[in-house]
Structure formats: C-alpha cells, structure tokens
Amino acid sequence: MAKPVIAIFDIGKTNKKLFLFDERYNIVLEQSTQIEEIIDDDGDSCEDLHALTKWVLASFQEANNSPSFDIKAINVSTYGASFVHLGYDEKPVTDLYNYLKPFPESLKRKFYSDYGGESVFSMFTASPVLGNLNSGMQLYWLKHAKSALFKKINVSLHLPQYIASLFSKRYYSDITSIGCHTNLWNFAQNSYHDWSEKEGIREKLAPMKAGDAVVPSSNEENMLCGIGLHDSSAALIPYLVSFNEPFLLLSTGTWCISLNPFTDDPLTVEELEKGCLCYLTYKGNPVKASRLFSGYEHEKQINRLADHFQKPKDHYESIGYNATLVAYPGNYFEQHDLSVYETYELAYTQLIKALVDDQVTSTKLVLNNMQVKRIFVDGGFSKNAIFMNLLAKAFPSIEVYAAAMAQASALGAAMAIHQHWNKQPLESDVIALRYYTGASSMVS
C-alpha cells in the first residue's frame, strides 16, 4: 500500500532539495541537485530559473510516479529576497536577479530622499538598507531603470510562491516573504508601506494568502498545495511547535541567521545600522533577527585551504575540536597569507574561530531578552564540532544545542499545513538535540 506523504521543495542558493515526509515527519525520500549560475541581462551572475523550474517539475514527477508513495500535499521553502516576474502570458519576463546584484547608488539616494530618509524608513519597515536584498527595491529599480520590462510584468512572485504556483497555477503573496527585509511592509501599521502604492508596485503583487493555507493542485487530483514560505521563517516552525521556553534559533547555511521570536523590543537605529531586521512568522508575528554571510565565507575559504594545502575540498569534515589548535595565538584568520599556518588543521580551526567570533557579535544583537535560556543551531554548522564547542564556550550561561536534523526549513514547511493533509497528531518531539558544553557534547 502506498505511504501517505507530503512533498517539500527546499531550495537554497547552493543546494536544491526535494523531500518526502511521512505522517510522522520521517524523511522517506531525498533528492538533491546543484545548478550552475548563469549571467543576467546586465552581466551579473544569477540563478538559472529555466533549469530550476525544469528540475522542480521533473523531480516531482519522478517521485509522484513511484508506487511506494501517495503524495497528499506539496509545499515550498526557499531563500528570500528574490522575485520571479511573470508577464501576461504567465512566462518570466526577466531573469531571476541575484539579491547580491549591485543596486544603483543614484536610485537608492532618490528612494530614501523621497520616503523619509534611511533611518526613519528603516524603522518603519524593520529593514536595514540592503540594496537588492530589500526585494521591493528590485521592483522600484525595474520601474525606474528598465521601464519597458516593468510594463510587461503582470505579477511579481517571491520565489517560494513561484515554485508553489507551478503546481497550483494560482498566484499569491505570503507574509513570510513580504515581511523579510523587503522594504514593502510597514511593521508599525501591519500593512504594506505607502510607497508601494504610490510607485505602482502594489498592483504588481499577488493577493496575500495565509501561510498555513492550501489550494487544490491544478493537475493532481486530491493533492493540496501550500502557498510557500521563506526558509528562515519556515525553519522556526518545528522549534515553536516543540519548545515553550524562550529560545533563540541560529539557522546556518549560506547565511547564518539568529532568530529571536521571544522579544517585543522594537529595532533601534543602532541595531538597524548593524544589519538587524525583523522577519514575520507564518502567523504574522515579528521575529527579531541578525544576519551573517558566514556560510558563503566558509565555502570560499575552504576552497583556498584545499588549494594551498593540497587537500580534498571536504577535508575539513574530518577535523574535530582540538583545544591546542583553538588556543593558537592570534585573534583572526589570516585570509591573505595561509603560509603562517603549518597545517590545514590549524588554519581551518582558526577560520572557524574567526567565524564564531563574528557570530557571537551578531547573535548578541538580538539576544537582548535575557529570558532566552537555550540556543538551537540547525543547518550546516550544527554538524561542525569546532563551531559548536566554541559557540557554547562563548555563551556559558545559555544552553547550546545542535539540532540533529538539519532540515528545519523543509520540516517547517510541512508542519505549516499539517492540519490539511496529515491524519496523525502533530508531533512535538521531531527534533533530536546534542548539548554542547564548550569542550564536549551529549545527546539528549
């Protein structure tokens, strides 16, 4: 008999994954791919939207054809700050522009001059000034710099909602995407910021749909489709289901994001200037967050280390916590001259030491609510013993745990629509934890 499952697409900048979860939220199938970036119409690197779309549809079809599984529902979790702009023929009219694409300085000055100045505007939108990482600014840029393309846009969908629409053929916006440093949401008024109306941006956005809502599939009878979620907000869901005591989640990947859902303190100007922001949960509640580009930096540096020391790229995975290497004199990783390190192991340990130093500074920005008693770490760095031990040493008064399951965003997307597809009670023990004391760890 076919097993009832939910299909989740969990799409990161580097890895694109399809999971099938059973009714107990065990992973029963996992597929993964990486897609080479292409060049956009300005010569900047960007996601290959055509290849991504093709993989999503093909991998789903393969899973759906298996006699072992009965796919009851599908949902999506992807990286944020990325729009797919569809024309009136329902085809993309632009590339999937990279959120790291440079934003024109003259347009930035004009925008903030017209709408109250950087500090005031950022306070209302809980969004530091981040250029194209403020995804609403991409629409502003298209209107003013590529007006012919802008006029061709019928609807602009954040990436999770675009992927979801491939299965539902319905277009929606969701609050987790609109509420993640887009410059579009006025947190004080809990509505779109006025500028989006004045600039004709609002009319390009699809109607809002609740993050826990579902709609029918367009071509799979009896399959339900979620709306899609921003991955950072999705990653919180299993923890909010499982733990009642205040905690902070450090979600690690390309970005390492510290999320504190247990503080009501509004963002200060200083916090905004240091890159703090607010996300919104799928229930519409604000979550204070800080961000670091640590996963990207880690990827870049392990390539350098592999070349310099003539080691495989994944050699770092075999290196454990070594107190002697941690105690090596020096407070920073030497990025320019690796010859100062005698061994790969020493250099890598110092790299992680530098990344953790930055992480502690970033996390403390949102740890201003001392009710927090636990830090949970999920994603790639949760499996890194050096990172976890150093983080635990840096927060001796807080319990630091690595989440044994590193698929929180995918699991969160599944749990968000639990009531619509799953006949079993919602589990509250889906997260196995490993406790770190600063020099050791214990499974709990």
TrEMBL record:
> Could you tell me which residue ranges the Carbohydrate kinase FGGY C-terminal domain spans?
245-420
Which stretches make up the Carbohydrate kinase FGGY N-terminal domain?
A: 6-194
- GO biological processes: xylulose metabolic process
Cellular component GO terms held in the UniProt record? cytosol
Entry superkingdom: Bacteria
| Keyword line | Kinase, Transferase
Which Gene3D superfamilies has this protein been placed in?
A: 3.30.420.40
Which SUPFAM superfamilies does this entry report, sorted A to Z?
Actin-like ATPase domain
Tell me, what's a Pfam family for it?
FGGY_N
Q: Does the keyword Transferase apply?
A: yes
> One MF term from GO for this chain?
D-xylulokinase activity
The UniProt entry's sequence similarity note says: Belongs to the FGGY kinase family.
PANTHER family according to UniProt = SUGAR KINASE, XYLULOSE KINASE
Q: What is this protein called?
A: Carbohydrate kinase
This protein's species is Pseudochryseolinea flava
Lineage here is:
Bacteria, Pseudomonadati, Bacteroidota, Cytophagia, Cytophagales
